Structures are given as C-alpha cells and as structure tokens.
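Lab notebook, bench 4. Continuing the backlog of folding jobs that were queued last week. Each job is logged with the same field layout so the records can be merged later without manual cleanup. Today's entry covers LicD/FKTN/FKRP nucleotidyltransferase domain-containing protein, a 674-residue chain. Filled in by technician R.K.

JOB TYPE: sequence-to-structure
TARGET: LicD/FKTN/FKRP nucleotidyltransferase domain-containing protein
LENGTH: 674
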Amino acid sequence: MLSVHACWVLLLCIPTFAEIVTTTTPSPAELDVEVSTQLSFDNPPLDRLYFCPRGKIEAARVGTSWPAYPVTLNTSECLNYDQIMGLPNRQQNLECIASATEALTSALDRVGLSESFLVWGSLLGWYRHEGGIIPWDFDGDVAVMKESCNATFDALRAKGSGVKNIAQAVDAELPRGFHIVTVTDGGVSRDLDTFSGCEAQELRIEGYWPGTEDRMCYTDLWFLDHESSEGADCHCDSIVPSPRACIENKYYSRGCISEADLFPLADSTLLGKVSVKVPNDPLGVLRRLYPAGIDIKNMAPVPKNPLFEDDWSIVVASSPTAMQQPRGHTTLWWFVAVPPLDRLFFCPRGKIEEARVSSGWPAYPVTLNTSECLNYDQIMGLPNRQQNLECIASATEALTSALDRVGLSESFLVWGSLLGWYRHEGGIIPWDFDGDVAVMKESCNATFDALRAKGSGVKNIAQAVDAELPRGFHIVTVTDGGVSRDLDTFWGCEVLELRLERDWPWFGGRMCYTDIWFLDHESSEGAACQCDSDVPSPRVCFENKYYSCGCIAETDLFPLTDSRLLGKVSVRVPHNPSGVLRRLYPTGIDIKNMAPVPENPLFEDDWSIVIANTPAAHELLSEHNTLYWSIVAIIVVILACAGIMLLYRYAGKRRGRYGPAQPADDATPMFAVE
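JOB STATUS: finished
OUTPUT FIELD FOLLOWS
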C-alpha cells in the first residue's frame, strides 16, 4: 500500500510544481498595461497612448513611487487611442476644427490677408502629429502680422468698403454656418463694432458642428507685431535673435519669435486636405511659444477643455498593447531612462547572449542566476569604483576652477558628464571613466589674446590652464596618435581636444581624467560646422572631425545654468540640457536593457547591462520556466509511479520490504529579466 501512497504524494505535488514553473506563462487575468517610466515623449506611438482618470493615476503613483518603479494599470480604468477617438463626436470635432481653420484662412485670402499661418496648438499638432491635430485639442490657432492687417484694411477702405474693422470684412467672406466674434477679458461677443481697423487682441471664428445647433468648434485669429513697428509693445528676451515679432496679447508676452524663424512661410496641409501655411522653422517658433517644451508629459493631466470635462491624465504605456498576465507580473522593458539602481545588474555578455537565444527575450522573460552577475552595490564595490567617480568629479572641479582663473568662466558639462548629470540626478554614470567639459572657441581665443596682452609668455591655452592646476593634475593634448605631455605643439586655441589627468593617490599607476572640448559658432570665421538643417540657427558645433553629430542650437546652450556634480562640485550646464543631449546622442539617452556596457579601461571584461523586473533575486526553480517543463515533469512523475509500483511489487516478492524515496532540491537563487 505504501507504493500507492507514494504515487499519490507525487501526483498531488504536480499542481504545485506546475504552478511554480509556469509563472511566466499568462494565466486568465484582466488586461493590464505597464506605464513607461519615460517622463516625456516628442511623439509617442498612438497605440501606446491612454487617457486615465487623474485620481486613479495619482493613486497608482503614490502606491508605486513612479517613475522609480513601474506602474501597472488595468485597461478597464483607461481609454486607449481608438477609444479616445471613438468618444462622441471626437473625430467629428477634429474635422470641424480643420474646416473652421479652412474657412478662416480662405476668408482672409479673399480680403487680401494671404499670409496667415498656424500658431500655438495648431502648429504644435501639425508638427508633432505629422500634419494632424492634437487628438484632445478643441480649437484651432491662426495668426497674421498686424502690419499686413493694417495695410489690408487701408486698401479695403480705399476701395470704398464700409467696414469698420477687419472682423467685419472677414465675417462677410465666411461660408454659411460660420461667424466672427471678438475675444475679450469678459468672454466673447458677436458685437463687431467695438474696435477700429485691426486694433483687436484676438478674434475667433465659430462654427456649429454639422447637424447641431448647440455645440461649436472654433479657430482663434491672433495678431503679431514687428518689434520695430510704431506702437509695438513687445517684451522679448535678449536671447531671441533680432529682428523679432511678438503676439499682441497681454496674456502671451512669451510669444516673441525671431522673424527668421517665421519667414518665408511654407505651404502645407492640415489633416492631409486643408491648405495652410506654416512658419519657416516650425520647431524654432514652437520653442518660443512653449519654453517648457513641446513633449507629451507622461502621467500628466490632459489640458482641460470643454470636450474633456472629466479629469483625465495622459498615460504612455511601455508596450503597444495590453497583455493578459497574472497579477504582479510586469511586461518586458525594452529600455529605461533611469532604472531603479536596485534593479540594475552587470552580467557577462556571453551569458546574456546565451540566455537571450535560449529564452527568446524579449518575447519571453529570461531568468538568470545571480551568481553570474553583479548588482549595483557590487558594481560600486569593485576595486576603486567609488573612488574613481570621486576622482572624475575632482578632476572636473580642478579643470573648471583653472579655466575660471585664466578667464574662461563659461565652461559647461557635455557628453557623458552632461548625460550623467541629467540622467542620474546630478551624478555621474556609474560605469563612466572620465569627465567632459566644453568651452566656446571664440571665448578661448579672446581669453588667450587677453593673456598675451598682459605679458603672459604662454604659447597656448593649455600652458595657461596647466599653470593654474593644483598639485597632482596636469594637461595633455589628445591627438590621433594618443596623448602627449608636450604642450608646445600648437598656438593659442588651435587644438581639437585637451585633457586634464590626475594620478589616483590610492592606486599607483592609474589615472582619472576630464576632457576639454572646443565648440565653434557656425558663423565664426574658419568654422567647419556641418549641421543638419533641422538644428535651429544660430548654431554651434564641435571642433573635432570625429564628432560631427555635435551640432547644437545656441538657444539650447545659452544662457548657462549653475548646478552641482555629486552634490558638491560647482559646474555649469546648458540652458536646455535635454535639447543638447538629443543632438549629442541622436539614437537616444536611455539605458538599453540587455545591451553591452560601453567599453572603457575600468570595465575591460565584456559586460552587459541587465535590468531585472524586481529589486531582489527570488528563489525560482532553475530552468523550469515554461509549460514545456511542466508537461515533462508530469510525464516523469507518471513513469516514476509506474516504475515504483513495478519495483515494489518485485521487491516485495523478493524481500517483503519497502525503501524510502530520496527528496531532490533543485532550487537556485535566480532573478527574472523583463
């Protein structure tokens, strides 16, 4: 009888065993979406965009510490893009906005104001949604130059038109179903006798939705003034290149735009069918209109408007579709902007490639043995790792301080140093091995000339800076052949790259260093910039043949901002760090999961970065991670039971006694990678 009991015990173990080994196989559950930890998006794929009730989002954020940790939301709480567009009359409203915009621009053309163009949300939608409209927008925005409006109105009056102002002239040209109103502090008014000529801050064209008489869409008409025009009341920042134009509206003083970004206008279409005009440099204009950025903010409220009166937030998921998955299981991470450090591991690249091939990652999770990898604490515990980061910071401090003392006070972080500062909250990339600081070539030349005028005998800027360094630091030149301590090889600032080196006092024969780069104004004599046309002018570029990708808009660089590195080293960073980083790293600044660590002298072994789906390793059954192994286990148990019964029958006949079964322990510490 004991043989039967033994088989029953083994068979009863099968459900428990199968549950353990199939935890990565989706079981019936509600559909969830995992929210991307990326904070903002230039243009997120629409199949990853959701609207969720703000209260639910706030609760999810509090419960998970997003974005340090992912948020998983039930899709029943949210609307995906198709559902958003399927809301009552949503698509019709976008069509209505387009038709109102078309009616307005056509009427403006007929009265003689042919140079109207998209601004504000209409320009943003056109730019960000490939000629479309922001999906949750509720109005259009068109602008004309006040000077052109005045000239048009004068021409109409000269022809004997009895109109009192441009609103009456445009209203007379509108198709049936549309009308003009004035927009004032008190609201809107159909009374078009309240102003003369073009002396209105804002006008609006309204049109009823087709088939309704109680709901409208509309497009606003804005007036821009040349800063040089008589009576113009522009309040422009000095960083906006002249000549400039500004929006004639006291609530929108930030709308100062370089005329070079506005003109000449370009012909385009809205929704692929409505003819419109857009500024010469749409991105340059948008950066002035939206100084905080034009990105879609993840987990942020949808701007309130009459069509979305409920309190919604925008959510961008980490994958295009919801996945059927058990509670507590999260989806795969393709990349992470700033992963929680307690989930970051370094693993041998060979092992990672083997695991990817064997598991089909990222279509399926991969489980790795913790003995193969280093967690963040172990990474930082590698010989002199923490000390090296401190050394990089001290080298950066020594360099910027020396630059200040010679007169080059406008140095700033670039490349990996800026990336680490931006991505690691004022820190350094944990596996970095050097610092990066830049100065403008023009400033360097002026500083060197000033030093020579004071009687300094230095031949170049390297000698001047080297003389100001504290003990233990020195300057070298960086060339194709390597580095050199010979500082007599160039004149003034005519060098591609310099480097400040420091010996590690705690590790003989090893150095940390910070590179110094030179940027040139594209307009400077002798500058060899090769910038893409999408980089707004004026621009700067790196004086280095290996870094032609480093073309940056000057408005992203200046004015510089004071900050700190590792919380203690005073540094300067660009005015718009993310804008600069996008130019320096066109493929993205995210940490790539299961991708190699950039090779450097401090990590000579072939490592890959791995981001786990939980902070700590779990006890998981080794290898048993698919339904396949469950089936194999069941077959093995059945065969074992049959064998045991045969064995015991045979043994019982031979010896009349039973033998105990030996337990097996196949548990190994593991962690799962999403």
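OBSERVATION: The longest helix spans residues 627-654.
SIGNED: R.K.
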